[in-house]
Amino acid sequence: MLDAASKGRLMSSYCIKCNRYVWPPNYYCNRCNSDTIFKDLVERGILVEKSISYIHGKIEHFGIGEFDGIRIIGTITDQIAVGDTIGIKSIKVTKGRLDISFVGIPI
Ligand SMILES: [Zn+2]
């Protein structure tokens, strides 16, 4: 999963039985306990929440994007509004953690 992310692909585990993504990624479905497979996430999501953080004196805009029912936190620009269609602009792996940024997609 982090391997794929470092190549710029966002994947998650997926349960074929429940027909849904399992987030956070796991080898087993947290609903029915079946084995999961790894699958690419859909490329478009919706921004459902937005907030600002002031860590280390730096202003950053954060958003929560919903991709196929999965909620993912990423950095955004101020121009993106809640309800906008978003895509994944970049994925980095920083110290073993996913560092995702979103980009607004014009409809
Ligand atoms: Zn399941």
Topology:
Elements: H1 2-6, E1 11-15, E2 20-22, E3 37-40, E4 44-55, E5 58-67, E6 70-76, E7 85-94, E8 97-104
Antiparallel strand pairs: 1-2, 1-3, 4-5, 4-7, 5-6, 7-8
The structure holds zinc ion.
Q: What this model shows, in words?
A:
The model has no long low-confidence stretch (mean pLDDT 88). Strands 6-5-4-7-8 form a 5-stranded antiparallel beta sheet. The chain has a 3-stranded antiparallel beta sheet with strand order 2-1-3, with no helix packed on it. Helix content is 5%, strand content 55%. With 107 residues, it is mainly beta. The protein contains 1 helix and 8 strands, in the order αββββββββ. The chain has a single domain, classed as OB fold (Dihydrolipoamide Acetyltransferase, E2P). 16% of the residues are buried. It is globular. Bound molecules: zinc ion. Residues 15, 17-18, 29, 31-32, 34 line the site of zinc ion.
Write out the strand line-up for the largest beta sheet, numbering strands in chain order: 6-5-4-7-8
Topology pattern, helix = H, strand = E: HEEEEEEEE
Quick one: CATH class? Mainly Beta
Overall shape: globular
Q: Count every beta strand, where a strand is a DSSP E run of 2 or more residues.
A: 8
CATH architecture: Beta Barrel
Name every ligand kind in the structure: zinc ion
What descriptive keywords fit this protein?
55% strand; three-stranded antiparallel sheet; five-stranded antiparallel sheet; binds zinc ion; OB fold (Dihydrolipoamide Acetyltransferase, E2P); 107 residues
Short description:
The protein is mostly beta strands and 107 residues long. It has one helix spanning 2-6, and strands at 11-15, 20-22, 37-40, 44-55, 58-67, 70-76, 85-94, 97-104. The protein has 1 helix and 8 strands; from the N terminus they run αββββββββ.
